[in-house]
Design goal:
single chain; about 375 residues; abc type-2 transporter like fold; 2 domains; five-stranded mixed sheet; about 70% helix; elongated
Length: about 375
């Protein structure tokens, strides 16, 4: 079979004309590698710094303040929050306001001066093993360094040549995930990520498919309002998405032995709300895209950053502030906090109400935008 160079070049020319006409797809294809290399470059980072920790200092001495300053002067910790009780500390950890806490008991300084074992406690939130390991390793290292320094001071004061002082006895406690199992962190996040990806893709092609099949014009001439059409198209997918959520929740919990510590009913209700929010994202994409190829590109353009910026794999604390702020515009960021909070910590609405309100607002805003976008098409 002879190939004609002329015919081949004609097809090539024709394809370039189609690409030139589809400016949205062309622009997205050029911008995607730039955006992704920036996001991946800054977001893919497991070196956690500036971990927020709470301090409970019941000794109130020079030695206890020196120990806290050791943590503060390192690049790993921000001990800017002070509490007066373990209940306050527990509340801060449950809220996610801090990732660890140090408790310095009364008599800490006295034991140092008398050459006895001074004790302190290091409490760590184990829901994110990457942050927890960093806090555990560096907390122990900083305490050991301070222990050596304070011993040298006391020995010099007493004029001793051999070390008779004792090291600081650090009692560590890792909450919610004592063995720092990565599956307990990954599986709840995976449930949220799978649900987002499935539901966004389900509706991203909905209106575009109608347009390409030529049935959108038939809907335009009917008295159906834009909001009615948007909701009517979403309801079947809400049902499918909710079933998918229950399946993912069951298999994630059962197969990988990640028990649900909190309320299963609350988790299902909030999961149902997240399904609606994700479907609204897909519907908005469907109103913007001109064809299924554009819808696919926009879906990928949304899904990939959400994997990186939501805290699904990489800690948000390890990202630059600007990249962190981008993650706060992704609904999955808040649903992951809900999933890990209920499944691992067993907390309820009294701790998660902020995330619930933000997710509700996201869903409402996205649905309104999708309706407005489709109304313009009807006009």
């Amino acid at each position: 079979m002879n190939m004609s160079l002329r015919r081949l070049m004609t097809i090539v020319k024709k394809e370039f004309i189609h690409i030139k006409r589809d400016k949205a797809s062309l622009g997205m294809a050029i911008m995607m590698p730039i955006v992704f290399i920036m996001l991946f470059g800054y977001a893919v980072n497991t070196d956690v710094e500036n971990i927020k920790i709470a301090v409970m200092d019941t000794d109130h001495t020079v030695q206890s303040r020196e120990l806290v300053s050791k943590f503060k002067n390192s690049d790993y910790f921000c001990p800017d929050v002070y509490v007066k009780s373990t209940k306050e500390l527990e509340k801060l950890i449950d809220n996610g306001d801090v990732k660890a806490g140090i408790i310095i008991p009364s008599g800490f300084s006295k034991k140092i001066k008398t050459g006895k074992n001074p004790q302190m406690q290091l409490i760590i939130d184990g829901t994110d093993p990457t942050i927890a390991r960093t806090a555990l390793q560096n907390g122990m290292m900083l305490t050991e360094m301070y222990s050596v320094k304070i011993q040298e001071k006391e020995l010099i004061k007493k004029g001793l040549n051999n070390n008779k002082s004792k090291n600081i006895d650090v009692r560590t406690r890792v909450w919610y995930n004592p063995n720092l199992e990565s599956t307990k962190f990954t599986i709840p996040g995976l449930i949220g990520l799978i649900m987002q990806n499935i539901t966004v893709m389900l509706t991203a092609f909905s209106l575009v498919r109608e347009k390409e099949n030529g049935t959108l014009e038939l809907l335009i001439v009917t008295p159906i309002k834009s909001a009615e059409l948007i909701l009517g198209k979403m309801i079947p997918y809400i049902f499918i998405g909710s079933i998918d959520f229950l399946i993912a929740l069951f298999f994630g919990s059962y197969l990988f032995q990640v028990p649900i510590e909190g309320s299963l009913f609350l988790l299902i209700v909030l999961g149902f709300g997240f399904v609606i929010c994700s479907l609204a994202i897909g519907m908005l994409i469907s109103t913007i895209a001109q064809n299924q190829a554009q819808a696919m590109q926009m879906t990928i353009f949304f899904i990939l950053p959400s994997v990186l910026l939501s805290g699904f794999i990489f800690p948000m604390e390890a990202m630059p502030k600007l990249i962190q702020s981008a993650g706060y515009f992704i609904p999955l960021t808040y649903f992951l906090k809900i999933l890990r909070g209920i499944i691992l910590k067993g907390i309820g609405l009294n701790y998660l109400w902020k995330e619930v309100i933000i997710l509700f607002n996201f869903g409402m805003i996205l649905l309104i935008f999708a309706s407005i976008r489709f109304k313009k098409k009807l006009d």
